[in-house]
Structures are given as C-alpha cells and as structure tokens.
C-alpha cells in the first residue's frame, strides 16, 4: 500500500530566535499525535557540516567556499535522510535549510536568487516554512544567556542583513512569519495553529 505523503516543515531565522527550541517542541507534539517524525538540522552532523561548524570558531571561509560546503552537506542530507523519510510518509522537521544559505551567504554578497536556484535543483521545497523573526539585539542577548559567546556567524550587522533576506520571503504561500519575542509557549502555539490548519 502506498504510504501517505510526508509533511516537510522547515524552521528558519537568525541565530537565537528559538529554532531549536521550537523544533523540539513541534516534534514532540506531532509524535504525541502518532506521526512518525524525523527532526534534523543544517549544517548537519556529517563530515561537511562538521567542517562548517569548525569555521564558526576558527574563522569563516569565503562566501563562495561556504556555499560549496553547504551545498555538499545538503546534497548528502537530502539523499540520505530527507527524501527517503518523505517518501515513507514521515514528517520531516528541519532546523535550518537552504533559506539560511540564501540569508547568510546572501548577506556576504552571493545572489540569494541564484543560491535558491542552485538548491531547488535538488532540494525539495518544504510544505511549510516558519521564519522565526526577532530583532538582532534580543537574539544576541539570548545567545549570551545560553552561555555562548557570539561566534563568527553571529555578528550584529550581518545578522541584520540575514533578517532582511528572511523577511523578503514573506508573501510566498508556504511561508509563515512567526514573531518570536513572545514566550516559547506562545510561539509554539502559533506554529501549531498553522500546522493544524493544513
Ligand atoms: N521565546 C523565547 N523567549 C525567551 N528565550 C527563548 C525563547 N526561545 C528560546 N529562548 C532561549 O534563547 C536561547 C536560544 O534559543 P535556541 O537555541 O532555540 O535558538 P536558535 O534559533 O536555535 O539559535 P541558533 O541558531 O544560534 O542555534 C536559548 O537559551 C533558549 O532557551
Ligand atoms: C544552514 C546554514 C547555516 N548557516 C549558519 C547559520 C549559523 O550561524 C551557523 C550554524 O548554525 P546553528 O543554527 O547555529 O547550528 O551556520 C549558514 O551560514 N548557511 C547555511 O546554509
């Protein structure tokens, strides 16, 4: 018997907006409803993701090199996890995807539209994209409260450019801008409301 189609959900936003927090809570909620849920993140914990994460401390690559690494990481992610899980009718929830590439490498001068074209040549478009939106100052404060110091990807001015690129996606039918200055519970209620309405 053909399995039901999977559901592909992506959470995006600048560092500190609450993506990891919301991804975890959404996955738990859907599992409690009996859905098989795969939660994952980008950069992944695979070899290319590890190389990228290392540069957050050692110093960033050029924007073009970063783009190449993220594309390699994502190709593996799509082939080994995302596509098979969706084909089996599972729910896939990602903490970051190619929209972060548009934002972060776009903020360094690579054309976001070209980044999107290169990614959508192999990466499936999600059914739902939640953009968690928050002012940069509050986001950086949260990163500090988490016990982290801002890394090479978390500079104020570049995050402000990233935020603009994320918000530029609003208006597309699968995109939902979620104000993330409220409590974690209130933010999760908004997200669940959209998922429920599908
Ligand atoms: N709605 C919220 N209100 C206040 N604090 C929050 C909220 N959501 C998350 N936090 C806290 O802010 C910090 C960042 O949250 P989280 O790690 O989920 O963000 P993130 O978007 O995944 O960050 P990054 O992209 O850097 O991994 C954590 O300490 C978390 O507990
Ligand atoms: C997917 C993706 C991510 N990034 C950046 C954004 C973050 O600052 C770091 C690490 O991500 P995390 O959420 O803090 O774990 O990677 C990027 O520049 N381009 C991308 O495509």
Give the SSE map.
Layout: E1 7-12, H1 19-32, E2 37-41, H2 47-58, H3 63-87, E3 91-95, H4 98-104, H5 112-120, E4 128-133, H6 136-145, H7 156-167, E5 175-179, H8 184-196
Parallel strand pairs: 1-3, 1-4, 2-3, 4-5
The structure holds adenosine-5'-triphosphate and ligand LXEULUCI.
The site of adenosine-5'-triphosphate has 16 residues, from α1, α6 and α8.
Note down, in words, how this protein is organized:
- The protein is α/β, with parallel strands linked by helices.
- The chain has a single domain (7-197), classed as Rossmann fold.
- Helices cover 52% and strands 14% of the residues.
- It has eight helices and five strands.
- It has helices at residues 19-32, 47-58, 63-87, 98-104, 112-120, 136-145, 156-167, 184-196, and strands spanning 7-12, 37-41, 91-95, 128-133, 175-179.
- It has a five-stranded parallel β-sheet, with helices on both faces.
- The chain is globular.
- The two termini are 23 Å apart.
- Adenosine-5'-triphosphate binds at residues 13, 15-21, 142-143, 145-146, 180, 183-184, 187.
List keywords for this structure.
52% helix; binds adenosine-5'-triphosphate; alpha/beta; 8 helices; five-stranded parallel sheet; Rossmann fold; 198 residues; binds ligand LXEULUCI
């Amino acid at each position: 018997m053909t399995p039901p189609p999977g559901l592909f959900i992506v959470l995006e936003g600048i560092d500190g907006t609450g993506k990891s927090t919301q991804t975890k809570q959404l996955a738990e909620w859907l599992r409690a409803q009996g859905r098989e849920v795969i939660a994952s993140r980008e950069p992944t914990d695979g070899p290319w993701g590890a190389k990228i994460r290392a540069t957050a401390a050692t110093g960033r690559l050029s924007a073009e090199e970063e783009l190449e690494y993220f594309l390699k990481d994502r190709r593996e992610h799509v082939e080994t996890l995302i596509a098979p899980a969706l084909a089996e009718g599972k729910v896939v929830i990602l903490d970051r995807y190619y929209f972060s590439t548009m934002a972060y490498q776009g903020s360094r001068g690579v054309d976001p539209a070209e980044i999107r074209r290169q990614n959508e040549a192999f990466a499936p478009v999600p059914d739902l994209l939640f953009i968690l939106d928050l002012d940069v100052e509050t986001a950086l404060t949260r990163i500090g409260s988490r016990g982290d110091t801002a890394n090479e990807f978390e500079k104020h001015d570049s995050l402000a450019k990233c935020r603009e690129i994320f918000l530029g996606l609003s208006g597309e039918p699968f995109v939902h801008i979620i104000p993330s200055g409220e409590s974690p519970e209130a933010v999760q209620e908004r997200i669940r409301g959209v998922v429920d309405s599908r």
